[in-house]
């Protein structure tokens, strides 16, 4: 009797798996249409479809095993990419070897607003949906210059990510590099990557004078700095569900405190149950302190 039950379960699993694959074919076609996905050849498309299926199954598995998670998941434009392709730093070129597991509070907190979201002030450009990987440093550094210019002038202008990508490759510090170029050009003046740095083909529209760097993670200092502009942050993006995040508060124990492999723009903060909540430009909320 036991062997018959096992056999029945196996057949049922195979049948259900076949249904899932068929459903994913529909989702795959919808994914390609929605995000205008085009591939060089059939082999690349087959590879991307397989990755898409793996990511979908991983998302469903997480949802099933974490019914009370504080955040929701969904399909996005990154679902045809493996997690390793989405990180901005390779193991050979880490941002830092290790960071503290929680924020310190070395300075007295001043009378600051309980929450802030620079997106509400119309100084944040739309989330970038183009090429990812090592270009993330160019994306976020350009975003920060765009936002700083908008905060100071009231004019939100798209900067040239391709220019920063061409002229400030890793491991060059992006902000030192932008400063040396006298700023960032407009996107319309430097619209595509050239494969070489051509800083003189356009005139920068925005720059900055001072670069502040936080040597140790400090919650109160971060809250003070963000009153003046958005911030650059280096994070570990390997936590479960991070790449398929859709909404809610991302507070996932699997996000380790070791290797930092991604960069984000912090656009604001709030609080939830006594914890500081950090708002990122990709609408992800991170719990960072008790």
TrEMBL record:
Keywords assigned: Signal
Domain Cathepsin propeptide inhibitor: 28-86
Any coiled-coil regions, as ranges: none
UniProt GO MF annotations: cysteine-type peptidase activity
Domain Peptidase C1A papain C-terminal, residue spans: 112-288
Domain of life: Eukaryota
GO BP annotations, alphabetical order: proteolysis
Classification via SMART domains: Inhibitor_I29, Pept_C1
Pfam families registered for this protein in UniProt: Inhibitor_I29, Peptidase_C1
Signal peptide location: 1-26
Gene3D superfamilies: Cysteine proteinases
Keyword Signal in annotation: yes
Family the entry assigns: Belongs to the peptidase C1 family.
Protein name: Uncharacterized protein
Lineage of producing organism: Eukaryota, Metazoa, Spiralia, Gnathifera, Rotifera
């Amino acid at each position: 009797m036991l062997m018959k039950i096992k056999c029945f379960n196996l057949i049922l699993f195979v049948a259900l798996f076949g249904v899932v694959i068929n459903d994913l074919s529909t989702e795959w076609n919808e994914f390609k249409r929605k995000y205008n996905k085009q591939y060089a050849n059939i082999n690349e498309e087959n590879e991307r479809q397989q990755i898409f299926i793996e990511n979908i199954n991983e998302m469903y598995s997480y949802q099933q095993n974490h019914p009370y998670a504080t955040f929701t998941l969904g399909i996005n434009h990154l679902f045809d990419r493996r997690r390793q392709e989405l990180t901005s730093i390779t193991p050979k070129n880490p941002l830092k070897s290790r960071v503290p597991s929680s924020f310190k509070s070395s300075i007295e907190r001043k009378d600051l607003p309980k929450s802030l979201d620079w997106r509400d002030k119309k100084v944040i450009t739309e989330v970038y949906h183009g090429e990812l990987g090592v270009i993330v440093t160019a994306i976020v550094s350009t975003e920060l210059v765009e936002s700083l210019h908008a905060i100071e002038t009231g004019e939100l202008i798209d900067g040239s990510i391709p220019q920063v990508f061409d002229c400030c490759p890793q491991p060059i510090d992006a902000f030192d590099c932008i400063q040396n170029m006298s700023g960032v050009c407009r996107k319309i003046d430097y619209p595509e990557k050239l494969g070489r740095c051509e800083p003189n083909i356009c005139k920068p529209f925005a720059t900055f004078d001072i670069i502040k760097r936080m040597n140790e993670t400090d919650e109160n200092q971060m809250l003070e700095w963000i009153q003046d502009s958005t911030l650059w942050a280096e994070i570990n993006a390997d936590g479960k569900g991070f790449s398929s995040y859709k909404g809610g508060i991302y507070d996932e124990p699997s996000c380790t405190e070791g290797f930092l492999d991604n960069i984000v723009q912090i656009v604001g903060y709030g609080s939830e149950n006594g914890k500081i909540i950090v708002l990122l430009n990709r609408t992800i909320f991170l719990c960072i302190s008790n």
